[in-house]
Amino acid sequence: MNLVRKTSRLAGFVCGCWLLLGSLATALAGDTVIVMPFENRSQMAQYNWVRESFALLINDILDVPGLVIISAEERQQAFEKMRLNPSDLLTRAAMIRVAEAANANLAVIGEYDIGGDKDHVTVAVTARLIETQAGRLIGNKVFNFSGPLADLQRIQGQIAWHIVYERNPSLPYTKDQFINRATLAPPRAYESFVKAVQTRDQELRESFLRRALQEYESAGQPGRYAAAIYELGLSHYRQADFEEAAKQLKVLGKDDLHFTDGLFYLNLAAHKSGNFTDAAAAGEQLVEIAPLLEVLNNAGASAGAKGDLTKALPWLQRAVANKPNDAAYRFNYGYALWRNQNWEEAAQQLRAALKINPRDGEAYFILAKALASAGKAEDAAQADNEAKRTLTTYAKWAVAPDKVPQLWRLKEELPAGAFAKFNRQAAPNRPSAQQITQRQQLDRARQLLLTNNANNDAEALQELQQVLAVDGTNAEAHYLRAVVLQRRNQTESALSALQAAVSWNPRMLEAHIALGRVYLSRGDRALALAHCKQALELDPANREAIALKQQIENR
Known about the structure:
Structural class: alpha/beta
């Protein structure tokens, strides 16, 4: 979660760009890069921190169209899959196997040697860019750099530029641009930051991060060391020091690399510290940037805890509509409806949550309250008996109802790469080579689907699977895949694909309409209406959405 895959988002384009950039499609389409730990040839253990620094910095600055970067977390998973230890010295063949396990077609490998004396430490670096499938050097080149250890970031910036240049020398980036980005932090602050990220000892980690921030400030650098601030906030969060975590994460600004991730943890930390005003503000801001289901749930929970049910209810309803089998989403929506005094609807949602988790004592407790308020005494008594049986705090809450805490349920984990497509809202208004290729594949799939021919459907599915293999967050590909699956009467798979489509793009009108139709055909009028409403919010004049609304009302 901390370091996520970086992919470029298409902010807009003009038709002339297609011809201008069409020649780039072959060179960069589908490139996925993994940076391996570099080998310490000096055998001087005090400089082992340099091994991982290459991946940390190069991953951050390889922020260009057409490249997908394997995060440190994903790389670790690949090592585990291959039953290898990242700290071991690996052969080139072993590194390539790890890269393949991470689905990377390019691997950056290398080594470094430390020389000089304690007052003038030097570093010599050798780097290689490997094409994993063929196991060969790209361009048959080996990159060698040397200089004072203080120049390590400059060297890493040059390596990053060479990776981009070797894949396509026509891209509008200069070496100086990469070096400038790599050297934003002073060398001593950078060293402390790298050491902090690599240590598992939370106290030592915090010490290194605070030192990095002090060294950054002492060097007179403008702005703030955003990466260190984010990691410090995350460190406090992991130690359950939520108030301090929120304090650190609030410092991050919109232009900082980890701003989106920081908002996610700020929402969680502020909520857990009882500062629902800051939690709700962070949640609302994050909904505008990255309206993922987990984000909608957490933002709704924080808004509800603050008492703003007008904002909470629509967000929670969207989460339930798009993933109805999630017990947390169902509970939160039912809980919000109960607090809003919508007794009947609250009972409906809480019963749905209990079908998913029949031993949910809190759900029984609130259900009993909702049924009692709705005047259903017998049903309320039955729910209350279940609450007594399953809720360990029942007696305490029954004696002192005013002591019942906020019961909102938060999602604390996101899928790897969840924020990748939202991390750079200010991407250039020019499609990348990878985006051009994906657009061509999606257009071809749509054309094939127009014929309603089984062979063409199979070919369309292949095109869509290629898109999703590169970008699993592509909502349009998920939607078109659902179309094929529906034609094949694979309803459950189609439903999952449609849910994925609206999860990654909540403004996808056609996917909401399709989901409304699927739920209506199953007799789930509530979910059908929820998606119909979302479609009409996007386009009140849409004929298909209007027709779907009429069908639902006539049921």
